[in-house]
Amino acid sequence: MKNTALLVMDVQEGIVPRVPDADYLPRLARAVGGARDAGVPVIHVVIGFRPGHPEKSDRNKAFAALPPGAFTPDDPGAAVHADVAPRPGESIVTKKRVSAFAGSDLELVLRSGEIDHLVLTGIATSGVVLSTLRQAADLDYRLTVLADGCADVDPEVHRVLTEKVFPRQADVVTVDEWVKSLA
């Protein structure tokens, strides 16, 4: 899949415990392994802040609620989860808001790699996946969402997004379907 990258978004030690599906990480690891085997770049997108959170605004309801020190370089919860940890040479993009593009150099990384097709995974479907999909669509990227490679604390919200909203702007498939398509 030339010009394609797999985005693994917000799959961090401090976020993964919120996922109610015990099979989520093994499924996501299959997607990451399939991408690596097929030579598809894996880009890890993480939420991260400087010590003291100078990027955080009290007007931002979601981020204002973060405890001091959360998702800073000293926070072990900021690390990419060990089950899908980056390998040498894989990009780690740090974002400052919900979308993978907000406050990050993701677009520069994608352009430099001549990537025009994004395969989206991550936590949460209603957060980083939705926001990134909307922005990427407006930037004219081709999009695929791995429905079971995304997770949300609310299964009904996940279902509505993956079955009704995302198909308007992306192909929506399962991890297994996507991995098979790489062969």
CATH architecture level-2 label: 3-Layer(aba) Sandwich
- Number of separate strands: 6
Strand content: 15-25%
Q: In CATH, what is the class?
A: Alpha Beta
CATH topology: Rossmann fold
Shape: globular
Q: What is the domain total for the residues? A: 1
Measured between the Cα atoms of the first and last residue, the distance is 10 Å
GO molecular function: hydrolase activity
Keywords: Hydrolase
Organism: Actinoallomurus vinaceus
Domain Isochorismatase-like: 4-177
Topology:
Elements: E1 4-9, H1 24-38, E2 42-47, H2 61-64, E3 91-95, H3 106-112, E4 117-123, H4 125-138, E5 142-151, H5 155-165, E6 171-173, H6 175-182
Parallel strand pairs: 1-2, 1-4, 2-3, 4-5, 5-6
Summarize the structure.
The chain is an alpha/beta fold.
Characteristics of this structure?
alpha/beta; Rossmann fold; Isochorismatase-like_dom; globular; hydrolase activity; Isochorismatase-like_sf; six-stranded parallel beta sheet; 183 residues
Tell me what the structure shows.
With 183 residues, the chain is an alpha/beta fold. The protein has a single domain, classed as Isochorismatase-like (Rossmann fold, 3-Layer(aba) Sandwich). Helix content is 32%, strand content 20%. The chain is built from 6 helices and 6 strands; from the N terminus they run βαβαβαβαβαβα. Strands 3-2-1-4-5-6 form a 6-stranded parallel beta sheet, with helices on both faces. α1 runs parallel beside α6. The longest helix has 15 residues. It is globular and about 45 Å long.
